[in-house]
## 1
Amino acid sequence: MSAIAVQHLSVTLGGLPIIQDLTFAIGEGETVGLLGANGSGKTTLVKALLGLTRHEGTVTLLGTPLDRFTAWDEIGYVPQRASVSLHSTTVAEVVASGTLARRPLGWYGGRQRARVTQALTAVGLAGHEDELYLHLSGGQQQRVLIARGIVNRPRLIIMDEPFAGVDVASQTQIAAAIAGYSATLLVVLHETDALEAALTRTLVLAAGTLAYDGAPAPAPDAHGLHETAAPERTRLLSGMEPRWTS
């Protein structure tokens, strides 16, 4: 069974086509890197897979169509760290918030505390439960978000740029945490270096279309699509002519 199956998926935002007619499937147990230039549609695709943005076409998660999917405790989501704003929140509270699909808001019992500790141990942050999330380094914050994503021991984990803005040492720790977890993984990446050994497959988006689907190290022509000129619509909206970076 496929962990994720997408057929003819399209997303339009503000009248602009962001995702265009994507069809692919990810089998259970795969670790897939999702690459593409800035603006290629990676984050929009992730949001569509999670039902967070309107789309056309079909998405199936763990064998169930998205419009009927309710087993959200089987899905772990790790958002971009820059998109998370937390004030006066402890590490334990951040991680525990990932269990709310199973428990009512405000519930925090012994079993939940044990799962929080186990998740933090898995990412190398045992003993940091009572520290404030905002007082941690960028790499530590990212590992807390990964712990939040795995606290329910989900079958499918989707991570949006877990290596963004963290140093090389933290990237190594994060990669070890990801590679050491047994689940289907879809990871948005800018480069494959940190996670290359764990990847079983790579998808590359270019201007909202699937430009490459294959071996973890993309072929030269596929990698070229990872560093392409900005589309015409970007120049019209911004008045500038930026170049994508990998």
Note: Confidence is low (pLDDT under 50) at residues 219-223, 226-246.
## 2
Amino acid sequence: MKTMLFVIDAGNTNIVGGAYENGRLVETMRIRTVQGKTEDEYAVIVRVLLEDRGIDPEQIDRVIISSVVPQLTSSIEKMARHLFNVEPVTLGPALYAKLPVKVIAVDEIGSDLVADALAAWNRFGGACLVVDFGTALTFTAVDATGRIAGVSIAPGLGTAAGSLSRNTAQLPSVPLEAPSSAMGSNTIQAIQAGVILGYTGLVEYMVKRITAELGGAKVVATGGMCRVISGLTNVFDAIEPDLTLDGLASMERFLY
């Protein structure tokens, strides 16, 4: 019997999936984004991961997709139809009017940020700020009326560190871990100090500035790298790595 919701957050670095039963997240999966992969290839991977976690794909009867990679969207939709035999709902401008948060710049804002905003609004019920540590570092602000007031975007931690390594002759790729000092005694520590501690300062300043403009707000961190920074600062009221998935899942009652 089909009883489960499956949500998919397709991003530039990873495709993250979440299986929900009775509104509760029961399993997650993370797949490296590879543009050019076919729906059949993704179907095989998702099926294996679900079955490895004890979930029969036949149990899934609703699918909600967020994709910020246009070249990937069609493959993910076809995968859902093939694997789950359902018509997926893909979040986009045509659906935003159904949501309790008011979306601005509907043709520009990433659907993942809309999901972030909805999840934070559902949790706090008032002005809130989502700091999402993904391929990009994003700050999505929701005002006290439930309107997305604006977004700020910076290169993500991995993007910044990777660019530094790719575009310099003698700087290596380094693990994104907090150093013990702001003054590195070797190249790896120097990069960690500059990137990790530097980004901590960036986050703290942006949170202070945005919450002041909102007149106060609850702040939540999410995204694959949120814990790299969250232990170095006290600006977050909550740490929710699965916030985007929860936002997509909460849309079920508005979209179906």
Note: The radius of gyration is 19 Å.
